[in-house]
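Incident log, structure service

09:12 report received: a user says their structure output differs between two submissions of the same chain.
09:20 pulled the input from the user's history:
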Amino acid sequence: MRIKIAPSILSADKDNLQKEVEEIEPYADLIHVDIMDGKFVPPITFLPDEIKNIDSKLPKDVHLMVSDPEKSFIDDYAEAGASIITIHAEACGDITKTIEKIKNLNIKAGLSINPPTPLEKILPYIGQVDMVLIMSVNPGYAGQKFIPEVLEKIRKLRQLKPELDIEIDGGINKDTIKQAVDAGANVIVAGSAIFNQKNRKKAIDELREASGI
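09:34 re-ran on a clean worker, output below:
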């Protein structure tokens, strides 16, 4: 399965988002957009218009770390150009209904769980989604340390769904990417490991090389 690199613009220069995206666009597969509402997690990040104003051929991989995403966020970020919208199992009252709302907008749907949440919580829904996102840090802030215990969830999920896109987000760098890929992740979110480097092409190339694939 091909490895996809999704640079997280949470670690980019927010005042120069277009320039930052242009620097990674030729070398990446997706733009990972972390949306936080100050409720589900403490920070507040990008507004819909900020994401809509990003001009890129790369798919916008929108990760909603928000409470009650079905109330307004899904419509807002669909309009902002999301290609896939991922919701958190911990934040939804009706997961199936929320997935259906995303798909009715002709957008791919993803489902995410935090490190403490067991994989079993989302198993009833994995046939409904296009991607599962396993968080390898507790969500909220960039630059956190990778939690290796989540890898077992990825291994189990890959055995159950050999063709499913499995995304991992949190603490991914040259030292941890191979663990994630070996466990079965194929969509790799990296923020600090890319945007904290001057040469973004080199940073992405080094991640791909370190993945072993």
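09:41 both user submissions now match this output. Likely a transient worker issue. Closing.
09:42 reviewer note: The domain at 4-211 is CATH 3.20.20.70 (TIM Barrel). The chain has a mean pLDDT of 95.
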